[in-house]
Amino acid sequence: MKKTIGRCFVLLILCTLSTQLAAAETADEEIQFLIEAVGKSGCDFIRNGDRHDSEAAVEHLQLKYKRGKRYSKTAESFIDRLASKSSISGRPYSIVCEESGAHTASDWLYEALQAHRGKNL
Questions:
Q1: Is 12 part of any domain?
Q2: What is the pTM assigned to this prediction?
Q3: 4 in any annotated domain
Q4: Total domain count for the chain?
Q5: Could you give the CA distance from residue 114 to residue 30 in angstroms, rounded to a whole number?
Q6: Do residues 79 and 71 lie in contact, with contact meaning Cβ atoms separated by under 8 Å?
Q7: Is 78 inside any structural domain?
Q8: Which residue of 11, 30, 88, 120 is most buried, as measured by CB atoms within 10 A?
Q9: 54-73 as b/e, with b when 16 or more CB fall inside 10 Å?
Q10: What's the domain range around 42?
Q11: What is the pLDDT of residues 53-112, one digit of tens each?
Q12: CB of 63 closer than 8 Å to CB of 70
């Protein structure tokens, strides 16, 4: 009886860890999608008043994600904590696209995430 309870407990722990790993992989995939979407957008990224092209934006977001991965367990926390504003000045980032104009980085990234999730249902 004790062996059965012990085995069930170990199985429960393994299932929990497996679920957490799958969620982490999904979050990482979504975050990588968002970073790539910025790069493919051709839009400019406004950071602390300076305009950067999409390639520079990708480099910046990759660096922030690499350094702050522990703060971004979900795509939403990545957007809110790392990709939407300067961690130094606190100023929000903007994304300016030729076709659609200026957006807050937060709005732009949430729209991209929503569209991505809609495609993957």
A1: no
A2: 0.77
A3: no
A4: 1
A5: 10
A6: no
A7: yes
A8: 30
A9: beebbebbeebbeeeeeebe
A10: 24-119
A11: 999 999 999 999 999 999 999 999 999 999 999 999 999 999 999 999 999 999 999 999
A12: no
